[in-house]
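Run: sequence + iron/sulfur cluster -> complex structure.
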Amino acid sequence: MAETQICFDKASFTLLAIQRAVYDTKEVVGCAISQSEEQIIITLNDENQKHEDIEKKLRASTLDHQLRLSLEKDFGTIRTALVSKAIESSVDLNALTNEGRRV
Amino acid sequence: MSNYSLLPFNFEKTDSNYLLTNDIGEYLLLSELDFKRFIEKKITTDENLYLDLESRFFATQEISQQLVNHYATRYRTKKRFVYDSTFLHMIVVTHRCNQNCLYCHASAAKEDAVEELDLSIETAERIVDSILSTPSKHLKIEFQGGEPLLNLDVIKHIVLYAKEHCSNDKKLDFVICSNLIALTNDHIDFILEHQIDVSTSLDGTQPLHDSCRKKHDGTGTYAAVSASLNKAKELGISNISALLTVHKKNIFSLQDVINEYVSRDFKSIFIRGLNPYGNAKSNYDEVACNNDEFFNCYIAALDYIIEINRKGIDLVEEFTAILLSRILSPFANGFVDIQSPTGGAICGMMYETNGDVFVSDEARMLHRMIKNTNFLLGNVSNSSRYDWFFTEKMKSYLECSVIESLPGCAWCAFAPYCGTDPVRNYFETGNTISIKTLDKQCQLNKRIFIHLFKLLHSSDSFTQRLLWSWATRG
Ligand code: SF4
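>> structure
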C-alpha cells in the first residue's frame, strides 16, 4: 500500500491537537508530521496498515483534541488557581521537612 | 448569552454519550446534544441539567473565593494520602518457601536453601526502628516472603519489639501473608495472642488451585491450605482473607473459583491478574492470559457475583469496589497500586532481608530478578527515611507517576480514578513512563472503567444499589 497523506487546515487545527491524536491512535505504527503554510500533514508510511480506517480515527480524535485544547484555554487559568489553592499548604515542603523532618 | 463559566474537566466519548470528569472525581454523563449545549454555554441556569453541572463543579455562575476554597478542600480530600505518611510497611522475613508456584512473583528459594536468605534479628530491629520513625499515626507491618512462617522467630521478635518501642499515640497492626501449608498450633497461638491478620492465597477449587500452586515435589497444595483454613477457623482465627491470582489455568473457570470462595464463607474476592515478575515471567506462556481474555472473564465474573448477591449472598469484588469508591466517594482509598502520585514509598515501603529499602513490593521483585537498583532507596543500617525521601531518585520516581501531567492520562476522563506504576512500566518497556496506547494495564483499566460507568447507569436498580454499597462500605 502506498503512503497516505492526511491534511488538516491550519486555520482549524493546531499541531498539538494533531500530535495528541497521533499519540492516542494506537493503530498508527509509522507516520511523519509535516507542515506547509496552510496545512499540517500526517503521512502514514506503514505499508501493512489499512489507511482508510486509521484516517477516520485520526480525524475524529483530532477533532476531540482540538476541542479539548480550546476548552483548556477557557478553564486553564481557573484550573491552575484551584490546584494551587489545594496544595498551597505544601508548596514549601522543603522548609517543612527540614524543620520537622516529617517524612 | 452565556451566564456561566466552565470549570475544568476531561471528557471521553462512550457510545452515544459524553463522560465528563474533573480533578475532584465528580462525573456526569451527557448526551451528545447536551454536551454540545453545555460547552457552547447554551444551557439555561434554571434547567435541571445546569443544576447537576453546577453541583458537580463542572460549571459555575461565579468564581468566588468560597468556590475556590471548597474545590481545594475536595481536591485535598481526594489526595489525602499525599498529606499522610507511609502507612504500609512490608518486610521480607525470608526468601525461602515451601512452595514452588508456577507464577511466583518473588523468585523464592527452596525451603532448605543454605544461602543467607532469612532476615536476622539485628536487621529486623533496624527495620522496625525505621518504621516507627514514620510520622503516620497508623502503621501496618506486613510480613512477606518467601513463606514468612518459615522464619517465625524473627516475626515474633518484630511483633514484640515493635509493640515495646511504639509510642502510645500510634496504632500498630500486623499482617502475615502466608500460604498456610505449614500452619501449626504454635503459629495459631501467636497469631491469636497478637491479633495478627492473615492473608493467604486461594486460586479456586482443588484442580484450579493445584494447577499453579505446587510444592517443590510438584504436588498441589490445595489440600494443605484447605486443612489449615479449617483448623485456623476452628481455633478462632476469624480475620483471614484470601487472595486470588487469575492465570491461564483458572481464568475460564472463575464461576467455580467464586463458588469456592462463597463455600468458604469469604465475604470478598479480588479478581487480580498476574504480575509479570519472577516465575510469572519465565513461565509466561504457561500462565499468562491476554487482555481480552482477562477483560471478558472479569466482566462475566462480575455479572455472576452480582447475581449471587441478588440471591442474598454477600460477596464483594474488591477491584470493582476500589474503583467505585474512587468514582462515587469524595475520599481517597488505600489502594496504592493505582493512584496518582503512586503509593510507592509515600504509602507503602518494602524492606528486604538484608535491610535494603525499596519503593514497593514490585521494586524488590524486579531487583531480585535482574538486580535493578533504580527503585532501591537505601539500607536501614546506614541511612534514614530522610535520606530515602530527599533524593533525585525519589523525586523522579514520584514525578513520573503524576498522571495529571502524563501524555495520554492528562486528557483521559478516567485520570481522577486511575494511576500508573513506574516500576512496572520500567520493567515492561524500559521506561518509567509508558506510552498509554501500548500500555496493557492502561488499556485494561480503561475498558473496566467504561464497563463500570455502564453498570452505574444500568436500568437495574439492584445493581446500582449494590455497587453503591460496595463503594461506600467502611
Ligand atoms: S493509565 Fe490509561 S486509563 Fe489510566 S488515566 Fe492514564 S490513559 Fe487513562
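>> summary
Chain B touches chain A at residues 5-11, 13, 23, 39, 63, 68-69, 71-73, 75-76, 79, 82-83, 85, 134-135, 385-386, 388-390, 407-408, 411, 435-438 (CB under 8 Å). Residues B 403, 408-409, 412, 414-415, 418, 420, 436, 442, 445-446 surround iron/sulfur cluster (CB under 6 Å).
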